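Hello, quick one for you while I still have it in my head. Could you read through the record and tell me how the tokens relate to the sequence? No rush at all, and the record is pasted right below.
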Amino acid sequence: MTELRQRMIDAMVQRGFAARTQESYIRAIRRMAKYYRRDPALYTPQEVQAYLLHMVKDEQLSYSSMNQAACAAQFLFQTVLGHGREHFHVPFAKVPAKQPELLAREEISRLLVACTHPKRRMLLQTIYASGLRVSEACALRVSDIDSAPDRMCIRVACGKGGKGRYSILSPTLLDLLRAYVRNYRPTTWLFANASGTQPMNIEIAQRAYHAARAHALITKSGGIHTLRHCFATHLLEGGVDLFTIQKLLGHGHIATTGRYLHLISPQFRPPKELDPLDLLAALRLF
């Protein structure tokens, strides 16, 4: 390992960067070094900009991929190497925001039925019922489920940016989790890998979602994060206020949560007899 790479890793660890962010940044700089075949510490701003253009123009990568590489370059040259922002400018592309394709409640019900692997189905149910990111759900420990009647919550120990929070544990989800624990007897990780020594791999969770979506004959695009979008939108449609949803999702700014206001269906009327926070209970109607 080169000294520069170690310095970059140390700087990311010191700032609490997630493991996946560290891997992404290191991979981006490694690809840039492979392109120029010399020490990245010697690059000029013009060379960095030329490489970012090469990604989009020659490699035909997306602007989102280019922006990921730009983030890595900005961190390396401005934070690690100490070049001032005014002297070492790293350009970013303006990526148009795309509205996610939401699943209807009937489609979510079909998707969960189509996932025949009990552990993976329980993971999908947990993500939809609590609004967790897939990385957060895979990293859940058994001790993160607080079933005390006066608490009833899920503890997210390390969310995005290293921030912890609590999300809801609905009665229906708690019943399903209790049955799951009785059958599978997890010890440390709620959704462990095959050997039980580590949490479930995120890619396995993604594949489980895509396989269930295909078996349910759902043609809408999007990955497992769609369930998190559905969680937020369905809570809004049920009358839950935006501030509460912001806290449940772990958003730093209310404006991030506010985009879900554009996704709600004006035609939907939630059943009065159901708790709007218990999304899984509502699926029984479909």
